């Protein structure tokens, strides 16, 4: 994970524990335009601001990394930027705890920061603050390419799981289902789309979009990492973080969205 945590991953725990009919759902049962994180993929309308968690979500994703690169450029020393970055991340977590709001996103950011800080501190190289993110992006790239080559595009499973309302509670219910219960299983939706050429094509395209995101990050940031250019590495880390993630999430939503139901239907 990059030291800056992205809303897509940060919202997972909150999404999974949410009730099936949450406050961000349209009366039809489909999420409205204020769904957060990956839930935005099944919304009737797409809101980039809501997808990233609003202004607060954006601040939590960007601030620690921004503090690190600005501090490093100013002092040209490793200690102060690392401490400042950790302090920023801790303050964000404490603010949520004080306000008794969900801390998943802030904790995700703190974990990412901790990994980057430990790596940079133990190695004595500032660029290693970003090493974990580069490795994680490479891992995602390989996995997604594998799902495409296997004709099992990962985006298809994510979107269909969201549409089926699969949560940890639903999974437990299915695991405890009585042997004689022949009712429909929500897991059927996870594979049914593979027999639909149109949906298969859409999910392949959408998965390629995410391959492009991770490939672009690696292509831009790896040379800067190897050169030890912290100022530009930190800058592109921010530019190719939440802004690019939100753009690719929107393009994914556009590709996989279902046609709107006719008025009055």
End-to-end C-alpha gap: 43 Å
Mean of residue pLDDT values: 83
Largest sheet: none
Beta-strand segment tally = 0
Calculate Rg over CA atoms.
20 Å
Instruction: Work out the helix count.
Output: 13
* Secondary structural class: mainly alpha
Keywords: Membrane, Transmembrane, Transmembrane helix
Pfam family, one: DUF3159
Protein name: DUF3159 domain-containing protein
InterPro entries: UCP010219
Question: What key attributes describe this structure?
Answer:
265 residues; single chain
Note down, in words, how this protein is organized.
- The chain is mostly helical and about 260 residues long.
- It has 13 helices and no strands.
- It has helices spanning about 5-10, 10-15, 50, 55-75, 80-100, 105-125, 130-150, 155-165, 170-175, 190, 195-225, 230-240, 240-255.
Sequence-ordered SSE layout with sheet pairings:
Elements: H1 7-10, H2 12-17, H3 48-51, H4 54-75, H5 79-99, H6 104-123, H7 131-149, H8 154-163, H9 168-175, H10 189-192, H11 197-227, H12 230-239, H13 242-256
Helix pairs in contact: 4-5, 4-6, 4-12, 5-6, 7-11, 11-12, 11-13
Short structural summary:
InterPro entries: UCP010219. This protein is mostly helical and 265 residues long. It has helices at residues 7-10, 12-17, 48-51, 54-75, 79-99, 104-123, 131-149, 154-163, 168-175, 189-192, 197-227, 230-239, 242-256.
């Amino acid at each position: 994970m990059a030291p800056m945590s992205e809303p897509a991953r940060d919202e997972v725990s909150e999404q999974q524990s949410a009730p099936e009919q949450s406050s961000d759902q349209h009366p039809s049962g489909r999420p409205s335009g204020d769904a957060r994180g990956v839930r935005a993929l099944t919304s009737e309308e797409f809101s980039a601001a809501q997808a990233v968690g609003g202004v607060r979500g954006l601040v939590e994703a960007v601030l620690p990394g921004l503090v690190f690169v600005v501090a490093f450029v100013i002092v040209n020393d490793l200690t102060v930027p690392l401490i400042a970055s950790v302090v920023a991340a801790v303050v964000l977590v404490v603010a949520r705890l004080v306000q008794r709001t969900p801390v998943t996103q802030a904790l995700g950011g703190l974990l990412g920061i901790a990994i980057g800080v430990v790596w940079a501190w133990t190695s004595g190289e500032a660029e290693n603050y970003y090493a974990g993110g580069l490795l994680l992006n490479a891992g995602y790239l390989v996995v997604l390419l594998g799902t495409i080559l296997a004709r099992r595009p990962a985006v298809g499973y994510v979107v269909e799981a969201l549409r089926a309302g699969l949560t940890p509670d639903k999974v437990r219910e299915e695991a405890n289902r009585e042997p004689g219960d022949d009712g429909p299983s929500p897991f059927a939706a996870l594979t049914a789309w593979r027999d639909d050429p149109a949906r298969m094509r859409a999910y392949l395209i959408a998965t390629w979009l995410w391959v492009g995101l991770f490939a672009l990050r690696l292509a831009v940031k790896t040379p800067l990492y190897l050169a030890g250019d912290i100022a530009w590495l930190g800058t592109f880390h921010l530019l190719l973080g939440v802004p690019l993630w939100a753009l690719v999430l929107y393009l994914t939503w556009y590709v996989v969205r279902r046609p709107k139901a006719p008025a009055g239907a």
